[in-house]
Amino acid sequence: xxxxxxxxxxxxxxxxxxxxxxxxxxxxxxxxxxxxxxxxxxxxxxxxxxxxxxxxxxxxxxxxxxxxxxxxxxxxxxxxxxxxxxxxxxxxxxxxxxxxxxxxxxxxxxxxxxxxxxxxxxxxxxxxxxxxxxxxxxxxxxxxxxxxxxxxxxxxxxxxxxxxxxxxxxxxxxxxxxxxxxxxxxxxxxxxxxxxxxxxxxxxxxxxxxxxxxxxxxxxxxxxxxxxxxxxxxxxxxxxxxxxxxxxxxxxxxxxxxxxxxxxxxxxxxxxxxxxxxxxxxxxxxxxxxxxxxxxxxxxxxxxxxxxxxxxxxxxxxxxxxxxxxxxxxxxxxxxxxxxxxxxxxxxxxxxxxxxxxxxxxxxxxxxxxxxxxxxxxxxxxxxxxxxxxxxxxxxxxxxxxxxxxxxxxxxxxxxxxxxxxxxxxxxxxxxxxxxxxxxxxxxxxxxxxxxxxxxxxxxxxxxxxxxxxxxxxxxxxxxxxxxxxxxxxxx
Length: 492
Description:
By secondary structure, the chain is an all-alpha fold. The chain has three domains: 2-147, no CATH class; 238-396, no CATH class; 402-491, no CATH class. The chain has helices at residues 2-35, 42-59, 70-77, 85-103, 116-141, 144-149, 152-180, 182-192, 196-222, 238-274, 278-306, 312-347, 351-375, 382-396, 402-415, 422-425, 433-440, 445-464, 472-483, 485-491; strands spanning 104-105, 224-225. Strands 1-2 form a two-stranded parallel sheet. Helix 3 (70-77) packs antiparallel against helix 4, helix 11 (278-306) runs antiparallel to helix 12 and helix 18 (445-464) crosses helix 19. The longest helix has 37 residues, at 238-274. It starts with a helix and ends with a helix. 27% of the residues are buried.
């Protein structure tokens, strides 16, 4: 009885492993058919839906909540809602991160309380497990000997032998049928003529997708446990950390004190005091200030981690000095935002300026959460809150049509007599096309003559896309371009 129970467990586990191998291979073939030479849109949503269905089946064998699968699925289908390159890149990164959270098993029990070091090491280990997964599955984990003893190998061999015998017969009768009918011959020629190099590229792409799918599904089945937090040998005394923070606080305060008149005095004061133009003031320092904003939080987190056993008065000192630096950092971010607004007011909006502006606003929320968790001695909640804030902010970025807003803002400037970068507007995604057509008739004639042929070329490109690349922005752009085709033809 005991042997039968063990055999049953082994058979169940083997069936799951075979499900991973078979479904991952099919997903590779499906992915190649959906993604090859196609723009991302409906195809990515369909592929991720199939992957999620298999993963949901496997997650039922573990204690991981299947609701985590909603997150990668949402970011995959987001490609059918917005057509923006930068937003698409952010969606793809969020999709990969969300898939990683499905697999990773935090030692604390929930990913919301995932530690910083635990998260970094866990995601690195997870990536290796996904890449090595297909090889482990085939070489080590599937009990091929058990399948052979159970008769599966024998049936597979018989099927293979039948295929081998049928091949020359199919070639013989196929040749006879082709000689008997010219239409059938043309049909056979169509299916048998292929470019070997192209066929090989398709095969490699499908194999790559299959390998990643198998590796991911195996990791879903097995789970990847985050490495245990190790107590590092490096540590610092409070006096050393306090010295670092005092020096940096003084430096930050000096810079903020120098910037405050510019923040409240406007561009006229900037030009009078420093002899700078709009572009000089806005560009010379925005990137640097953004870099400062990004570096401060990891630096404070590292300094806090190096203070072992901090409590009582020492903890209060750290909170005071680090909190002061966070306040100064908020003022520096405000300075960066002010520079961006000045630059935008003079030269118009771009996608990069919009998203950088949004990132700076997101940093305010990240700083507030950092202060509540790290300075409040709740470091275990830092990563979970940051992830929720990042995913939520990215989701909110899909609500407005930013590229349409950019077109409306910049064309309004052109109608008012200011310069318009038509080359840039023509590089925007399909989200911008309806807004471009709406403003087209009110633009100066020389600009309309420049934009008309480019818009018509976009229609040609859209009509060449197949159903796999379907998305709401592309459908809306194609409909608007068809409605204005006659008008654009006259202005070509």
